[in-house]
Amino acid sequence: MTMISSSIQKKENNWMREEIVRKTLVLERRHAPRFSTRDYALVAETGDDSGQPYHLVDISESGMAFRQIDESPLALTDSTMDIFLADGPYVCRLPVTVVADRQLAYNGMSKQRCCVRFGKLTPGQQNMLRAFILCYTKNVQTGETVTDC
Fold this sequence. Notes:
- By secondary structure, this protein is an alpha+beta fold.
- Helix content is about 25%, strand content about 40%.
- The chain has one domain (about 5-140): predicted glycosyltransferase like domains (Thrombin, subunit H, Beta Barrel).
- It has helices spanning about 5-20, 125-135; strands spanning about 35, 40-45, 55-60, 65-70, 80-85, 90-105, 110-120, 135-140.
- The longest helix has 20 residues, at about 5-20.
């Protein structure tokens, strides 16, 4: 990678990070602002071909929450997960640790909401995660679309 392309990459990464923060009015108590998915997105344990994918509820640069219907709590500890869009995998092998997994009642239906924290991400995973947040989410507090890609 040349020095010029490295400089451009750094500027692009800084722009993406600043754009995410600029569009967020309230940081809440979390370390990073969270965003609900704008388009249908799923998450699944990496390599779990027999497992059911889960609906991605919201995401930030530090973690994500997803929902399972009529499932028992997950035993995800030091595992990896993939984020999928309709046309296939988007971000792969994200290291995660479960921080909360609770049962919710919704219209007489039992659902689990699982919250995970990301472990150490590679620079490529960080860039793909930021791109996902910019292109496929909206601000949780305002409902405002982050950006159109």
